[in-house]
Design goal:
The complex is a heterodimer of chains A (322) and B (226).
Chain A lengths: L1 H7 L8 H27 L8 H24 L7 H5 L6 H23 L1 H12 L5 H9 L3 H24 L11 H25 L7 H31 L1 H11 L3 H24 L2 H4 L2 H26 L5
Helix pairs in contact in A: 2-3, 2-8, 2-9, 2-14, 3-5, 3-9, 5-8, 8-9, 9-10, 9-14, 10-11, 12-14
Chain B lengths: L4 H24 L11 E6 L8 H9 L9 E9 L6 E8 L7 H5 L5 E3 L6 E3 L9 H5 L6 E2 L6 E2 L16 H5 L5 E5 L6 H8 L2 E2 L11 E4 L9
Parallel strand pairs in B: 1-10
Antiparallel strand pairs in B: 1-8, 2-3, 4-5, 6-7, 9-10
Classes of the chains: A mainly alpha (322), B alpha+beta (226).
Chain lengths: 322, 226
C-alpha cells in the first residue's frame, strides 16, 4: 500500500491520475460514437434510437466528454480563467487545436443525437417546459436531410479526438516514452476497446438490448481483433523504444522492466485488461458468456484495463527525461 | 508587345501572393524564431564557478521568487579525483532561452512567448491559465507554477526587473568569480561572442533542435554531461 501511495504522489509529475481519467473518458466517448455510427449505418435494422447500444451512447458519449472537460478545467491552476484557452488560439499548440476539436465534436454530437432522438427529446421538453419549445422540432426537421453528412463528419471527429489524446502527449520532446509516433494509434484502438466494452455493459445491462441481436453480436465480434491489435501496438511501442537505444531504451526499461509501474503494466494493463477477457471468452461455454454477470465482469475488466493503460502511459511516461 | 496591363497586374498579384505566403509559412511552419533585433544569451563558465549560490539568492530577491521554487539552481556533482586533488563540478540549471522553444510552441493561449526584440523567452502571466503543458514540454525541466499567481514561471534574464532598469541580470551582477557572461549574440563585437569564440563551449540537448542560448564552458576535467 505504501508503494501505491508513493507511486501516485510523485512530486515530479505535473499531469497526474486525474488527467488519465480525462484521457479515458474522452477516449471512451469517441470510441462509443465510432461504434454507434457504424452500427446505425450497417448493422441495426429499424429505428436506431430504439437500440440499447445507441441509447447507451446517447448518455455516455456526452457524459464522457462533458465530465472529462470539467475535470480538465478544475485541473488548471486557474480554473476561472479557462475561457482564455477558448479565445486565444496558437496554431502550433496541439492543446489549442484540441480545444477547438472538442467544441466542434460536442456541438456535432449533440445535433446528431437530437436528430436521432427527436421524439424523445420533444416528449421531455413538453413534459417540463410545455409547448413553448416546439420550434426545436422544426429545426431538427430542417437538419434531418443532412443526417448522412453529419454522421460522416462526426465519425471523422471521433477518430481525430481519440488520436488527439495521443498527440497531446506525443508532442512532448521531454519524455522519450511519450514522444512516440505509435501513441496516437494505440490510443485510437484503446478508445475503440473501451467504447466497445462500455457499449456492451450499458447497452445490454442497463438498456436491456438482447444479447442475441445483431448489434450486440457485432460488437462482441469486434472486441477480440481490437484487443489483439492493441497488444501488437504495445509490442511495436516498446520494441521501438528499446531498439532506439539511449534514453528511449532507458525509459522503456524503467517503465516495464522492473518496479511498481512494471507490475501495473504487466498484471493490470496486459493481464487483467487484455489477456484475461480474451481467455475468459475463449474457454467459457456460450451459455456462460450470455449471462449478465459474465458480461459485466468481462466488460468491466476491459474498461479497467484501458483506464490503467492511460494511467500507466502518463506516469511511466513522465518518469524518464530525455 | 503581348504583355497587357491586365497580364502585368495578374503577374504582380501572383508574385505578391506567393511570396507573401512563403514568408508567413516560413515563420510559422519552420518554427524558428531567430529574427529580432537582439538575441540575448548567456555563458556559464563551470571552471570559474565555486558553487556559492549567490546567483540563486540574488535572483530570488530581485525577481520576488517565493521559497520552495526557483528560477535558477546550481547543482554540485562529484567529488572528482583523488585526495588531495579533489574537485567538485558545478552546473547551472535555468531557462536556456531556446530560439526554437518547445514551451512557446505548445502553449495553448500564447502566454509563453519569445520577445521578438530581445530573443528572451518569457511568460505573460495574465494570459496563462495554468494547464502545465509548458512545464512538461520543456526538455530542460526548468518551468514551475508560481505559488502565488498560479502562472507558469521561469528565468527571463531579469527582463522586467534589472534589464528594464538598464542593469545586467541579477545572477551576473552577483557572481563573485565572473562565471557568468550576458550579452547580445547578434552583435559580433559583444563580450559574449568573444568568450564563445575563445573557449570550447557546449549547450545542453542541442540534438532536440531547441537552439538554446545558454552556453557552457566545461571545467576541464572529466566527461561533459550534456
Amino acid at each position: 500500500m505504501n508503494t501505491f501511495i508513493e507511486a501516485f504522489s510523485g512530486e515530479a509529475v505535473v499531469w497526474d491520475w486525474i488527467i488519465a481519467v480525462y484521457l479515458f473518458l474522452a477516449g471512451m466517448s469517441a470510441g462509443m460514437v465510432m461504434i454507434a455510427i457504424y452500427l446505425k449505418r450497417k448493422v441495426i435494422e429499424g429505428r436506431a434510437a430504439d437500440n440499447g447500444i445507441i441509447k447507451a451512447t446517447a448518455i455516455l458519449a456526452p457524459f464522457g466528454i462533458v465530465v472529462g472537460l470539467t475535470i480538465l478545467v478544475f485541473h488548471l491552476t486557474k480554473p476561472l480563467a479557462f475561457w482564455k484557452i477558448m479565445i486565444y488560439v496558437n496554431t502550433t499548440s496541439i492543446m489549442s487545436m484540441g480545444v477547438i476539436l472538442f467544441n466542434v465534436y460536442m456541438a456535432v454530437l449533440f445535433v446528431w443525437l437530437a436528430v436521432l432522438f427527436k421524439d424523445e427529446l420533444l416528449n421531455i421538453l413538453n413534459k417540463f417546459v410545455g409547448d413553448k419549445l416546439n420550434f426545436i422540432g422544426l429545426i431538427i426537421d430542417k437538419i434531418k436531410p443532412l443526417e448522412n453528412m453529419l454522421e460522416v463528419i462526426l465519425a471523422v471527429l471521433a477518430v481525430t479526438l481519440a488520436a488527439y489524446t495521443g498527440f497531446l502527449l506525443s508532442a512532448l520532446k521531454t519524455f522519450p516514452l511519450l514522444n512516440n509516433p505509435v501513441l496516437p494509434v494505440l490510443f485510437v484502438f484503446s478508445s475503440l476497446s473501451s467504447g466497445a466494452a462500455a457499449s456492451l455493459m450499458f447497452g445490454v445491462l442497463v438498456f436491456k438490448q438482447s444479447m442475441h441481436c445483431p448489434s450486440v453480436k457485432w460488437v462482441h465480434g469486434f472486441e477480440r481483433p481490437v484487443v489483439m491489435f492493441e497488444l501488437f501496438l504495445l509490442l511495436c511501442f516498446f520494441s521501438g523504444l528499446i531498439l532506439g537505444g539511449g534514453q528511449k531504451e532507458a525509459a522503456a526499461m524503467a517503465a516495464i522492466g522492473a518496479g511498481f509501474w512494471a507490475g501495473w503494466f504487466w498484471i493490470g494493463v496486459v493481464g487483467l485488461g487484455m489477456l484475461l477477457p480474451l481467455i475468459l471468452n475463449f474457454v467459457t461455454s456460450e451459455q456462460t458468456r450470455h449471462t449478465s454477470s459474465f458480461l459485466f465482469m468481462v466488460t468491466g475488466l476491459s474498461l479497467l484495463g484501458v483506464l490503467m493503460l492511460r494511467t500507466f502511459i502518463l506516469y511511466a511516461g513522465q518518469m524518464t527525461v530525455v | 508587345m503581348s504583355c497587357t496591363r491586365r497580364d502585368l497586374l495578374i503577374g504582380t498579384g501572383a508574385i505578391i501572393f506567393t511570396t507573401g505566403i512563403t514568408s508567413v509559412s516560413s515563420r510559422t511552419l519552420a518554427a524558428v524564431m531567430s529574427d529580432g533585433k537582439k538575441r540575448y544569451g548567456m555563458v556559464f563558465d563551470s571552471s570559474a564557478c565555486i558553487g556559492c549560490t549567490k546567483c540563486t539568492e540574488a535572483c530570488r530577491e530581485t525577481n520576488n521568487v517565493p521559497e520552495g521554487v526557483s528560477r535558477l539552481e546550481i547543482t554540485r556533482s562529484g567529488p572528482i579525483g583523488e585526495h588531495p586533488d579533489v574537485k567538485y563540478r558545478f552546473d547551472r540549471t535555468s531557462c536556456q532561452h531556446c530560439d526554437n522553444a518547445p514551451c512557446v510552441h505548445v502553449c495553448p493561449t500564447g502566454a509563453a512567448y519569445k520577445d521578438q526584440a530581445t530573443g528572451i523567452v518569457d511568460v505573460e502571466a495574465d494570459k496563462c491559465v495554468g494547464c502545465g503543458y509548458c512545464l512538461v514540454a520543456c526538455p530542460y525541466q526548468v518551468r514551475f507554477f508560481h505559488p502565488e499567481t498560479g502562472s507558469a514561471d521561469k528565468c527571463n534574464f531579469c527582463r522586467d526587473t534589472n534589464l528594464k532598469a538598464g542593469k545586467l541580470p541579477a545572477c551576473v551582477l552577483s557572481c563573485p568569480t565572473n562565471a557568468l557572461v550576458f550579452g547580445d549574440l547578434n552583435d559580433p563585437d559583444s563580450e559574449i561572442n568573444k568568450v564563445i569564440a575563445n573557449n570550447t563551449v557546449y549547450r545542453n540537448k542541442v540534438e532536440l533542435g531547441t537552439q538554446p542560448k545558454l552556453y557552457k564552458i566545461a571545467d576541464g576535467k572529466g566527461e561533459i554531461k550534456r
